[in-house]
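Query structure, 315 tokens:
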């Protein structure tokens, strides 16, 4: 059953490459779906897909799940062995990274009402790069079975023609179980195993007794994410403390600027100082969780806290 899906997906990629003479791009997070989509695209090229250039784009928020970020960057490095593949790392503009947005500009923690992080850390950086490419084939690792809502919005068509890009969706008819089975039975493009994916999704894949592979619905992304249920992203207690703390600080009116109508707006100086203290504590305990220049970040946070205290005392 899976083998027929693999061949169908490869054929989708090959047919698309022969129908449109465009550069290709693939958004890569290092998770199970984008990894599988990338693997299939490389296999399609081996089997004759007419792909002259493939950009593999990784949006580095610098606060990605530490293990996932490490493995993603290693995977990108291994792609340099292919002359026709160009791994690309994009980041937020200077001053628009997550910590700067909260500490320097006073943005409250992202919520369902204001997901400012997605635009600045991922969408804008990726789109800026894609504009340089122009019209392109975009390989997406979406699956229609991810949720009932996703199935209704995504549909099951493998090819979607848009104004500036053609979306190729080789996994659209795959299930989560198909993805895990594929990664279990397949070697990575450089001969390495995908064991690290199963380590990452350990609770989903039988490492936790009684939890069948693909049933726990784990989520990975930024470890500071205040939009994901805590139990769905396995990180250390130190990093969990930051995530919980950011929500608590942002939820209290005493830490917010209140406008003339009584509505809470951005974080005030005290709120920003608390955020800086929270990040500094985590940085000192787990510097590997930060993709920043940790020395520069430490100095920035310490200086901000010092200046904030001095300003508070002078009032």
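Result returned for the query:
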């Amino acid at each position: 059953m899976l083998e027929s899906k693999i061949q169908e997906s490869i054929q989708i990629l090959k047919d698309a490459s022969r129908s449109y003479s465009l550069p290709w791009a693939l958004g890569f997070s290092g998770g199970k779906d984008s990894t599988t989509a990338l693997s299939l695209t490389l296999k399609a090229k081996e089997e004759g897909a007419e792909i002259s250039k493939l950009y593999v784009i990784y949006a580095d928020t610098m606060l990605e799940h530490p293990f996932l970020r490490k493995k993603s960057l290693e995977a990108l490095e291994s792609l340099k062995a292919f002359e026709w593949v160009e791994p690309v790392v994009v980041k937020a503009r200077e001053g628009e990274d997550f910590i700067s947005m909260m500490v320097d500009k006073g943005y409250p923690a992202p919520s369902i009402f204001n997901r400012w992080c997605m635009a600045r850390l991922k969408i804008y950086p990726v789109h800026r790069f894609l504009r340089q490419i122009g019209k392109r084939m975009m390989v997406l690792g979406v699956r229609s079975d991810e949720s009932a809502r996703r199935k209704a919005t995504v549909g099951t068509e493998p090819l979607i023609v848009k104004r500036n890009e053609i979306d190729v969706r080789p996994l659209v008819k795959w299930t989560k179980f198909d993805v895990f089975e594929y990664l279990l039975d397949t070697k990575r493009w450089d001969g390495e195993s995908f064991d690290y994916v199963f380590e990452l999704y350990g609770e989903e894949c039988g490492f936790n007794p009684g939890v069948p592979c693909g049933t726990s619905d784990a989520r990975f992304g930024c470890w500071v994410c205040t939009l994901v249920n805590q139990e769905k992203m396995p990180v250390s207690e130190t990093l969990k403390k930051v995530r919980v703390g950011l929500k608590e600080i942002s939820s209290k009116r005493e830490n917010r600027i209140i406008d003339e109508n009584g509505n809470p707006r951005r974080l005030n100086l005290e709120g920003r100082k608390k955020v800086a203290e929270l990040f500094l504590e985590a940085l000192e305990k787990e510097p590997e969780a930060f993709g920043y220049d940790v020395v520069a970040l430490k100095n920035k946070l310490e200086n901000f806290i010092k200046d904030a205290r001095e300003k508070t005392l002078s009032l």
